[in-house]
Write a structure and sequence with these properties.
11 helices, Rossmann fold, five-stranded parallel β-sheet, seven-stranded parallel β-sheet, about 350 residues, 2 domains, alpha/beta, about 20% strand
């Protein structure tokens, strides 16, 4: 059995101990070292060569964002951020994902007096998925590009572009979404796995980067062109066609179908497929697990189209792989090619 050394970085002794205990409960992991601030973290990553780093954000001398940036430049290694639920914590987490962190986990779920077994199990499962995956680091992340002054005319009959992603998704989205021109005539809906409270800051961040408006989807909101919608975390997002033929969002936390994720890509796509039929393009990017596979099956049942990200550019090739192995993918493309493939398909 292969074992992976983890560097635990946090200025709190309690937090270091809590994370170390969780890690050492799994025979796949051992704590290769600890660091109390960002300066120590950078030095110990270079010296100890851990397989993975867990990183706090707020620390003395050098914070987690500064350390992450230095690590990605000097000795790239998978880094998982430990985040708070606060608005500021969400913004810092998004910055960390842009700098090259591969995932994040909420501190609140790990530091309670009675650590929930399913939370620690999920934490370990995600860490294992990351270290066992073929990982990319910040040096190879495609930076956002805007195409200024371009004119977009859609000739192919596509009424919706849906993008689903999980681990590594924010960085992948950053390589695609800012490139759509401001007159792009097809609405785009994004489902990114995130805890409650994180998708609104994500939408605000992309709204500052993109030429299209970016908004968190709201219940009973009308789907319109000129907008990228982010499915809100903590809820399920579905589509409904009302009497006048308009399509609206149905966003709630009372879904009849039990699901591990909120938003769940399978649930959103399963509601979209019978409405948009062959006018739907579904794009599945990097992510752990198999969410999206059943939804893409529904897309194909109603004669829609499915693109997936190629393994060589995925942070984690779980979700695209599941779609490919089920036989639902119409095309598999590197992240750097995905925007142009979407444009070629709808033009």
């Amino acid at each position: 059995m292969k074992q992976y050394g983890v560097l635990v970085v946090d200025d709190s002794a309690f937090m270091r101990r809590a994370i170390s205990q969780i890690l050492e409960s799994d025979p796949h992991f051992f704590v290769i070292g600890i660091a109390r601030n960002g300066l120590e973290a950078v030095e110990k990553v270079q010296r100890l060569k851990p397989a993975l780093v867990t990183m706090d954000v707020e620390m003395p001398e050098m914070n987690g964002l500064g350390a992450l940036e230095q690590i990605m430049k000097s000795c790239p290694v998978p880094v998982v951020m430990l985040s708070s639920r606060t608005g500021e914590g969400a913004k810092e987490t998004l910055q960390a994902l842009e700098l090259g962190a591969v995932d994040f986990f909420l501190k609140d779920n790990l530091i309670s007096d009675q650590i929930e077994k399913d939370q620690s199990s999920e934490f370990l499962l995600r860490l294992k998925g990351i270290v066992e995956a073929k990982l990319r680091c910040a040096a190879s992340v495609v930076k956002p590009q805007k195409i200024e002054g371009s004119k977009m005319v859609s000739n192919r009959h596509t009424d919706l572009i849906f993008i689903g992603c999980s681990t590594g998704g924010p960085a992948a989205l950053q390589a695609i979404l800012p490139r759509f021109p401001k007159d792009f005539p097809i609405p785009i809906v994004v489902a990114q796995h995130m805890p409650p409270g994180f998708t609104k800051p994500l939408a605000e961040r992309f709204d500052s980067l993109c030429q299209l408006k970016v908004r968190e989807a709201q219940n009973e909101q009308v789907l319109q062109v000129g907008t990228i919608y982010i499915a809100p975390s903590g809820n399920q997002t579905q589509f409904e066609k009302i009497q006048d033929g308009t399509v609206i969002f149905k966003v709630d936390n009372e879904g009849e179908i039990p699901a591990l994720y909120k938003p769940c890509i399978d649930i959103t796509l399963s509601s979209a497929a019978p409405i948009f039929t062959n006018r739907l393009l579904s794009v599945i990017l990097t992510g752990m697990g198999v969410d999206g596979m059943q939804g893409c099956g529904m897309v194909k049942k109603y004669h829609g189209n499915v693109f997936v990200e190629a393994e060589d550019s995925c942070i984690v090739y779980g979700m695209p792989k599941a779609v490919c192995e089920a036989g639902y993918a119409d095309g598999q493309y590197m992240l750097s090619q995905m925007y142009q493939e979407i444009i070629s398909f709808v033009s």
